[in-house]
Design brief:
This protein is of the alpha/beta class and about 250 residues long. The chain has a single domain, classed as Rossmann fold (3-Layer(aba) Sandwich), CATH 3.40.50.150. Helix content is about 35%, strand content about 15%. Strands 3-2-1-4-5 form a 5-stranded parallel sheet. Helix 3 runs parallel beside helix 4. The longest helix is centred in the last third of the chain and has 25 residues. The protein is globular and about 60 Å long. The structure holds S-adenosylmethionine. The site of S-adenosylmethionine (SAM) has 20 residues, from helix 2.
């Protein structure tokens, strides 16, 4: 597969979220959404065949922002891998966690958070290694068959580009039909890129968990379409959905 032609230029920095830890301090609702994922993370790790994982268990956190809201999800995944490893004859398995986001992300805050927060998944752990990548989720980020567990919370509503302006409105759902269709086509193309690249990166028994927001009258229909597109890309890409209250 060829790399996507999408390019994220430095000029995006003006549009990007504020730095200096602003998101970490002001994303309590997003943090709450991540807590709904915790039992799903345990379930996903339980489905991974640790005997098939190589010398390292690779975790990817797609769309990490400044890291605070990823700490508990990553900690939960690591605890479950540690609990399961002896049962699969793997006494110790090194774990790598790679946080990915846009090149303009506030990476200094991410590293300060992950390396030094007492709540970090690194605290008190050995054989856990953290990395970061500034490659867009709409491109291939890892070599093939590299990731055993992929996690992405509240990220895929960010499209790779603005396909057109929305006259007189700020919400795409309130735009005129033509404009709405243009945005829908961009969202569809991005979603397919996301799934194609994740299907390449995931190991055969790997699991991908995506936490996203959605709503509106056509919710059921949208969920059905989402499940169908996941299935068509790879069995490694999750085929189940759970509804979170809200
Ligand atoms: C709402 S934040 C979610 C952060 C965190 N996962 C959480 O649950 O709080 C969405 C993040 O996705 C990132 N993002 C947007 N487009 C992206 C892309 N194409 N590739 C990687 N990350 C992207 C943004 O920079 C932002 O940090």
């Amino acid at each position: 597969m060829t790399q996507s032609t999408e390019k994220v230029s430095a000029s995006h920095s003006e549009e990007h979220m504020l730095g200096h830890g602003f998101y970490n301090k002001h994303s309590h609702e997003q943090a709450k959404a991540n807590t709904y994922a915790l039992p799903l993370i345990v379930e996903a790790i339980n489905r991974i065949d640790l005997a098939q994982i190589g010398s390292e268990f690779g975790i990817a956190d797609y769309g990490s922002a400044q890291g605070q809201n990823s700490l508990l999800p990553m900690k939960t995944a690591i605890a479950q891998i540690r609990a399961l490893a002896p049962k699969s004859g793997r006494a110790a398995i090194p774990i790598s966690v790679t946080h990915t986001d846009l090149p303009t992300n506030d990476w200094s805050t991410l590293f300060q958070t992950v390396l030094f927060s007492p709540d970090s998944y690194l605290a008190g752990e050995s054989d856990v290694f953290c990395f970061a990548s500034g490659t867009s989720v709409y491109q291939q980020i890892f070599p093939p068959n590299h990731i055993a567990f992929g996690y992405s919370a509240i990220t895929e509503h960010w499209l790779s580009r603005k396909p057109c302006n929305i006259p007189n409105e700020i919400w795409s759902t309130r735009a005129t039909e033509g404009v709405r269709n243009t945005w829908a086509a961009q969202a569809k193309a991005d979603w397919h890129s996301f799934l194609q690249y994740r299907a390449l990166e995931m190991q055969p028994s790997g699991q991908l968990l995506i936490i996203g927001s959605g709503g509106g009258r056509r919710r059921q229909q949208r969920r059905r379409r989402l499940n169908q597109s996941c299935k068509s890309h790879s069995p490694a890409v999750g085929q189940r959905r759970h509804t979170i209250p809200g």
